[in-house]
C-alpha cells in the first residue's frame, strides 16, 4: 500500500488505497437482505430527506449507534473522512451527484439506501450521520445504486449520506441526509407448522416423528420446550431437535416399540413451561399449534403385515388386474398373484369404497413368511362377502403353513350359520361361531389367539362386538406348525396351490396382522380406525 505521506493529493491517497484493496483482496460484497414473511411494523415507514444543517430537526427518533465498517480498512476510512473535512477546492469533485435519494426499511435490523448512478465515479461512499458527526461505514462499486446496512437495532432512527469518489480521486460535497426508522420487532410468531407424514415404527428408517415450525424471525432455544403428541391412548413429547439460531425449528419424538396409532396422531400446543423460543423482540407467547397429524401413523414392532386398498400406490396393476399388493407396515412384504389368478381392483364397490374383488373364483394373492412358530397373533380383516359358503368353504384370509409339506393352515371362513357352519377359524381343528356375516356392506373382523394356545381359545370380534356363541368346535394346537405364508382369497392344506373348494367370493378392503394379541384398548382403537375409514 502506498504510504499516505508520499502523496500530495489526498484524493490520490484514497483512490490508491481503495483500488489496491479491491483489486488485490476482494470483490465488494453488497449485503442483500429480504424482509421475511411476517415481519411486523407498526405502520409503513417514511424517510426524511434533509440538509445536514437540518438533521437534528427532521429525525423522528433517537439516532442509533454507528453501523460497523464492513468492506474498507481503517486507513481508508480515515483518509476519506479527512478529505470530507477539507474544505479546499483541491479535493472537491466537479461531478454533479445529487446524493442519497431514499431509504427502504428492510427489517428491524437492516435498511436499504438508494441513489442514482452518475458517470466518472470510482466509488460511492456510504456515510452514517449521528448527532451531527459523519462516519464512513463502507464504499460501494461504481455500478451499484443501493446498499443494505445491517446490524442495526429495532425501532431505531438512522441517518445516512452518500457521496462520490470520482475517477480523479476527489469527493463531492453534497449534504443530503435521509433518515429512516427500522422496523419494530414483535415476539416471534409461527408462520407454518407441519409433521412428517407416513407410517412410523421403531425398527425402521422412519423411527422419528418430526414436527417442523417456521417462524418470522430467527429463534433461540432456551431450556427445553417440548410438544405433546397423543399416540393411541397415551401422551408423549417431541423434544427440540435442530435449528437453533434459524427461523426453522424441528422437534422430534423417537418412536417406541409398542407405540400404535393407525389413524394418525394428535399434536398439542407447545409446552412453554419447560423452556422458551426467543426472537429479537421477545419470546413466543402462545404455543398454540394447528397441525393435522392424521397422515402421520404409528405401528408397533409387532406389526407384520398391513394391506390397504385405499392406498392405490400400494397396488401393482395391469388394467384392473392386481399383480401385487404391497405392505404398508415397513416390513417390505407383499402378496402377489400367479398368472391367471389375479383378483380385480374395484375403484368403487357401489358405495364409493375401493377394494380387491375375489368373486370370479380361483383368484388368490399369496405371500411368503409373515409370522412363524408358536407365537401370538392378531388379525384384522375388513371384508364383504357377496355370499356365504356352506361347510368348509369361502375362506377370505389364511395364514397357511408350509404349503408343500405340512401346512394345517389358519383360515378365516365366512359361512352360513347352521349345522357346523358360520364364521370360523379352521386349522386341523376348528372353532365355528354362530354368526352370519353381512353381505350388504363391509364388516371389521378381528381374530386373535395367544401363543401356544388351542384353536378353542381363539377370540372373535365383528364390528367391535365379541362373538361368543359357538356352533361347533374341535381341538387343535395353534403352535405345532410353522404358520408362515399368507393367502388372500383361498386356503390350502399340504399343497402349494390353494384348493378351489375354499375360494372366497367377495371383497377384501384391508388386512392387518400383528405378532401379538393386542390389548382391549388397542383392539378397539384399530377397530374404530377401520370402521371410520371404511364408513361401516
Question: What does this entry look like structurally?
Answer:
It is a single chain. It contains four helices and 37 strands. It has 536 residues and is mainly beta. α1 packs antiparallel against α3. The chain is elongated. The N and C termini lie far apart (85 Å). The chain crosses the membrane at residues 13-31. It holds the Pfam family fn3.
Distance between termini? 85 Å
How many β-strands, per DSSP?
Answer: 37
Strand content: 35-45%
The helix-and-strand class reads: mainly beta
Report the helical percentage. under 10%
Would you identify the regions where 5 or more consecutive residues have pLDDT less than 50?
1-10, 19-62, 401-408
Shape assignment: elongated
Protein name: Fibronectin type III domain-containing protein
Transmembrane segments: 13-31
Domain Fibronectin type-III: 97-188
Keywords: Membrane, Transmembrane, Transmembrane helix
Task: Give the arrangement of secondary structure elements.
Elements: H1 10-25, E1 48-51, H2 55-58, H3 74-85, E2 100-105, E3 111-115, E4 121-130, E5 133-141, E6 146-149, E7 157-166, E8 176-181, E9 190-195, E10 198-200, E11 208-215, E12 220-223, E13 226-231, E14 234-242, E15 248-254, E16 266-267, E17 275-279, E18 282-283, E19 296-298, E20 303-308, E21 315-318, E22 321-326, E23 334-336, E24 344-346, E25 355-357, E26 365-367, E27 377-385, E28 395-400, E29 411-418, E30 421-426, E31 430-433, E32 443-449, E33 459-462, E34 465-467, E35 470-474, E36 485-488, E37 506-514, H4 520-533
Parallel strand pairs: 10-19
Antiparallel strand pairs: 1-8, 2-3, 3-6, 4-5, 4-7, 7-8, 9-11, 11-15, 12-17, 13-14, 13-16, 14-15, 17-18, 20-37, 21-22, 22-23, 24-25, 25-37, 26-36, 27-32, 27-37, 28-29, 28-36, 29-30, 30-31, 31-35, 32-33, 33-34
Helix pairs in contact: 1-3
